[in-house]
Amino acid sequence: MNFIYVLKIRHSGDEDQVFLFDHISKVSDAVFEFFQMDDQRHRGLDGFQHWLMDKDYGYFDVSKELVR
User: Which pLDDT does position 1 carry in this prediction?
Assistant: First the structure.
């Protein structure tokens, strides 16, 4: 089975952008790069997502989809 990771991401007030990845580590890299917040990696994706929403800075969602 092959999976892809779908990343929906946006800055507050902007429209969603969608990216596809073949590995979760690439998703993580893309999220921190998108927000230019490499110094926040210590929070992990879950902690960073909560931090973003708390600051009303942006949003992202990751889903794992089966490719047939």
Answer: 75
